[in-house]
Structures are given as C-alpha cells and as structure tokens.
From TrEMBL:
<dbReference type="InterPro" id="IPR036388">
    <property type="entry name" value="WH-like_DNA-bd_sf"/>
</dbReference>
<protein>
    <recommendedName>
        <fullName>Sensory transduction protein RegX3</fullName>
    </recommendedName>
</protein>
<feature type="domain" description="OmpR/PhoB-type">
    <location>
        <begin position="130"/>
        <end position="225"/>
    </location>
</feature>
<dbReference type="InterPro" id="IPR001867">
    <property type="entry name" value="OmpR/PhoB-type_DNA-bd"/>
</dbReference>
<keyword id="KW-0804">Transcription</keyword>
<dbReference type="InterPro" id="IPR001789">
    <property type="entry name" value="Sig_transdc_resp-reg_receiver"/>
</dbReference>
<feature type="DNA-binding region" description="OmpR/PhoB-type">
    <location>
        <begin position="130"/>
        <end position="225"/>
    </location>
</feature>
<feature type="domain" description="Response regulatory">
    <location>
        <begin position="2"/>
        <end position="117"/>
    </location>
</feature>
<dbReference type="InterPro" id="IPR011006">
    <property type="entry name" value="CheY-like_superfamily"/>
</dbReference>
<keyword id="KW-0805">Transcription regulation</keyword>
<keyword id="KW-0238">DNA-binding</keyword>
<dbReference type="InterPro" id="IPR039420">
    <property type="entry name" value="WalR-like"/>
</dbReference>
<dbReference type="Pfam" id="PF00072">
    <property type="entry name" value="Response_reg"/>
</dbReference>
<keyword id="KW-0597">Phosphoprotein</keyword>
<feature type="modified residue" description="4-aspartylphosphate">
    <location>
        <position position="53"/>
    </location>
</feature>
<dbReference type="Pfam" id="PF00486">
    <property type="entry name" value="Trans_reg_C"/>
</dbReference>
C-alpha cells in the first residue's frame, strides 16, 4: 500500500518510515502541507492512507485536512497531541477518518492504518441500495449517502453516515457498542471504542439534534425517532 506521511520533523519521519516500510508500506514523505497537497493531485497514482501530523510549518493541519478531503476520498488519519474531544470532533468534521494521539504505540498506529484501509476498500466495493429513511425532519438517502435536516444538506464523513444509517434502520433498538464497531468499522479491535464516542458526539452536533442518538449506559446507543 502507498502511504503519504505528512510530517515536518525529518528524524520522526525517518524512524516512522522505516517501521512502515518493514510492514510493507511504500511511504512518500511530505514535509509541509503544500508538499502533501501537491502529492495528492488527481493524476497521481493514489495513496491508500494519508497520515497527517497537525503541527506543520506552513499551514494548520486542520486546514490541510479540509483541502485534502476536497481533492480525494483517501482515508486520513490525524496525528495530534490534542487529546480533548472537541479537537477530535473538529478533525472528524473536516473529513478525517481517524486520529492517533501522541505519544502513540506503533502497534496501535499500524492497526488504525489497516482498519481505515479495510473500511475504505469495503465501502468502495459496496453497491448502493434503493432505500431512503425518514426520521421526522431527518431524511437519509442511502443510495446517494446524503442526509438532509429540514431540507438542508448536512455534510457527514463516511463513517458518520454509516453509523447514522445503521441506527436509523432500526429506531428504538439498542445497538451494543461491540455490534456497532463490528458493522461500521468492520473490526473488533477495542481501541475503536473511543472513536465511536467521538463520532456519536460529532453526529449530534452536525445534525443539531443531541437527543436523536441516546446513550444506553453500559450497553451502547439507540436512535430515538423524532416526531414528524
């Protein structure tokens, strides 16, 4: 798999590139946001994953993520020292598929890279259905993967849409955390649990309907269908 590593620290990049190469990755190193964007031109051979450090010398990493998402659907994993939920939600809102908080374990990073790669391949291979779901003011078009609230389009990331669609197909039914992670993230890796929480928080914020997805303590989540 080709991987684009966006990291301004040459020593960190060299060490990480060596580890990634030992695990079969073909790594391209970009030292700035501009280098990363140039590497992602439409006519390039394409990358399986972008590993994006947020502390870049020329542009804010969040800004770079937003620009990447406008150019390509390639999965983006943010690398950040900002561990607060608000920062992570902001990254997901800009289109990041996952994040790793510094300092991180190399095994965790590799697991997350493989996870987002599998999810991307599976999503691309999935044939869209012909179903739409109405949930009060929320309209979910499954074939086009589009969500509107009161007629206004809400921009969701790939996994945000998958999570919402899963819960919306069985309103009122409690989905266990393990079940959601298995069906949406296609993995049983325990570290995905925190990502699930952040995606739920992001959905509540984007849809401006915090009561739409209810947390069932110790179990998981369910969608509470709003009144029409």
């Amino acid at each position: 798999m080709r991987l684009l590593l966006v990291e301004d620290d040459n020593h960190v990049a060299a060490a990480l590139s060596a580890v990634l190469a030992r695990h079969g990755f073909d790594v391209t190193h970009a030292r700035s946001g501009e280098e990363a964007l140039q590497a992602l031109v439409p006519e390039s051979d394409g990358f399986g994953v972008v590993l994006l450090d947020l502390g870049l010398p020329d542009q804010d990493g969040y800004e770079v993520c937003g620009k990447i998402r406008k150019r390509t659907s390639t999965p983006v994993i943010m690398v950040t020292a900002r561990a607060d939920v608000r920062s992570r939600i902001h990254g997901l809102n800009l289109g990041a598929d996952d994040y790793v908080v510094k300092p991180y374990d190399t095994g965790e990073l590799l697991a997350r890279i493989h996870a987002v790669s599998r999810r991307s391949v599976a999503d691309d291979a999935s044939a869209p259905g012909d179903t739409a779901l109405w949930l009060g003011p929320v309209y979910i078009e499954l074939p086009n993967r589009q969500v509107t609230v009161d007629g206004l389009v809400v921009q969701l990331t790939r996994k945000e849409f998958d999570l919402l669609a899963l819960l919306a197909q069985r309103p009122g039914v409690v989905f266990r955390r393990e079940q959601i992670i298995s069906e949406v993230w296609r993995t049983s890796w325990e570290g995905t649990g925190r990502t699930l929480e952040v995606h739920v928080a992001s959905l509540r914020s984007k849809l401006r309907m915090p009561a739409l997805i209810e947390t069932v303590r110790g179990v998981g989540y369910r969608l509470v269908a709003p009144a029409s």
